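Journal club side-thread
Mid-discussion, someone asked how the predicted structure for our own chain would compare to the paper's figures. Pasting it here so we can look after the session.
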Amino acid sequence: EIIKKVRTTELHSPSAFKNDQFLEIIKKVRNTELHYAAIAFYLEEEPMTLENLLKVLVEQLDHSRVVHFMRKHEEHMPLIMPYLKSVQSKNITAVNEAVNDILIEEENFEALRESIDAHDAYDQLDLAKRLEKHELLEFRRIAALLYKRNKRFESSIDLSKSDNM
């Protein structure tokens, strides 16, 4: 019965979709594949309310799978930043890397610094390599810090010297 309601709403979205009703129905669904189908549906039909869906389903979702799915729709990744921040405390590599990527894209070096200080499950050397070429000095400083944390002292010193730090 519930699954039928979800499918009907998805198939007839312009006439049958009511956000509040859909959220009430989807949280009762036990089939996790329907949760991911709902994410795809929201991304296509109601991207600005995707965050509401993720809040309702947060306990039932595989957060790495959500990130993997959203990577296919990279332009929409910033829409799920509140969701990512809410689950980042679980220190999941895919989530941490997605958060860090968004922060780099937004050029928010303060929040990136907080993210890398609070969560260590991400490829630190890969992030350092990406940041060492960044146009903003603060991101290059973060790269030097990451090299230092990973005992790549020569890379850290070379980067610091090139920036006259």
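Post-session note: The CA atoms of residues 137 and 163 lie 8 Å apart.
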